[in-house]
């Protein structure tokens, strides 16, 4: 995918923009929350990591162990 390409190239800003655009196109506010959290983590933007992990947990409550491992 385009996101995987940007990730492998270290293009974190483009990766984030890709996920945000996907979220807009999907019209799903929590789409790509976990992926965005990982991208923000690489950039050291920890408040956005927490926000996106909480969004991920809200939309996927059965995946709480994934969030606990972060």
N-to-C CA distance: 24 Å
- Count of helices? 5
> Percentage of helical residues?
over 70%
Describe the global form: globular
Strand content: under 5%
Give Rg in angstroms.
12 Å
Structure classification: mainly alpha
Low-confidence spans: none
Largest sheet report: none
Spell out the helices and strands N to C.
HHHHH
- The tally of strands reads 0
Mean pLDDT: 91
What does this protein structure show overall?
With 70 residues, this protein is mainly α. The protein has 5 helices and no strands. The chain is globular and about 30 Å long. The mean pLDDT is 91.
List the helices and strands and how they pair.
Blueprint: H1 2-9, H2 12-26, H3 33-43, H4 46-59, H5 64-68
Helix pairs in contact: 1-2, 2-3, 3-4
Short structural summary:
The chain has 70 residues and is mostly helical. Helices cover 76% and strands 0% of the residues.
Quick tags:
70 residues; mainly alpha
């Amino acid at each position: 995918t385009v996101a995987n390409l940007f990730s492998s190239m270290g293009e974190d800003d483009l990766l984030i923009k890709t996920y945000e655009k996907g979220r807009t196109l999907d019209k799903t506010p929590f789409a790509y929350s976990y992926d965005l959290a990982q991208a923000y983590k690489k950039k050291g933007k920890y408040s956005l990591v927490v926000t996106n992990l909480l969004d991920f947990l809200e939309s996927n409550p059965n995946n709480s162990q994934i969030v606990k491992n972060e």
